[in-house]
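Each letter names a residue; structure tokens follow underneath. Both lines appear below:
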Amino acid sequence: MQRHKSTTSSDMKKYIKSPEQKENNKYTENNPKENEIYNLNDDDFKTAIIKILNELRENSDRQLNEFRSYVTKEFDTIKKNQTEILEMKNTIEEIKKNLDALNSRADNMEERISNLEDGNIEMLQAEEEREVRLKRNEETLRELSDTIRRCNVRIIGIPEGEEKEKGAESLFKEIMAENFPNRGKKLEIQVKEANRSPNYINVKRHSPRHIPEKLAKVNDKEKILRAARQKKIQRNHYQISAE
């Protein structure tokens, strides 16, 4: 029994002596109490070993608590970082949505501006076409007016109201007959229309209004004017001129 006890003590001493080589030697040299343990009897040796184990357990518990505290702190930090990252992600998503909305509004504005520009171009084209039509109509009216006026002669100096009894057309034919008695059928004139112009009386104007005679043919006008040049047409100072 004593032999077994001694063997067990020797094995434990051997276990203590065989830590990791260099570190163990260094530790043994720097800790003289360790050397004293080897010289203890079995009971004291066991007591010392139990004490050492208790110290190791306390150190392990302390280190474990420190490690647990460290891990908990790191975990809280990671959790906090994750929260911040999530908030940043949400912020980025919100910014992206705002940018998308701004881009959409910009696209809509560009489309509206493009439509307005197209509308302005169409309006300008329509305005140009309208001006062209107006000019064309003015030219047409001018041509019509010139065509109408080409057939007209104007009687000047007939007192106001004189044409009401006989009519302006009959009065014109009477003047032709008086001034060209020998022309006969050569001066047969067809009058389409004869009226005072303008159609209202200007009280500030003392001379009578003229009577434009709208003839059926341009040749009739030329005959009258040619005859007027050869013989001055007059009837109480009435005159005939081209319109």
